[in-house]
Amino acid sequence: MKICNICHKISGSGEDHLDCVQKRSVELENEDFKSKITENLQLSNNSQDLGVEVKAILEHLSRDKDSDE
Q1: CA atoms of 12 and 62, how far apart (whole Å)
Q2: pLDDT means over runs of 10, the chain (69 residues)
Q3: Which of 48, 40, 4, 45 is nearest to 61 (CA)?
Q4: Closest CA to 60 of 52, 26, 44
Q5: Burial class (CB in 10 A: 0-12, 13-18, 19+), 37
Q6: Concatenated DSSP letters for 13-44?
Q7: pTM of the prediction?
Q8: Are 3 and 9 in contact (CB under 8 A)?
């Protein structure tokens, strides 16, 4: 038995729990997506072409990214 490095609970398999590993992977992909969304949409070049709803969502996501750091 071993302690899972992610959730710090006992793991019977001697390795990190599979669901913990998958959850960490999804979280990292989500953070990567958030950090690159403005680059992918070229927000700085065509912000006037986006709808009000899309602008609000992108601003919210970029605020989340800034507050996490």
Answers
A1: 40
A2: 90 90 89 75 61 80 61
A3: 40
A4: 52
A5: middle
A6: TSS--HHHHHHHHHHHHHHHHHHHHHHHHTHH
A7: 0.48
A8: yes
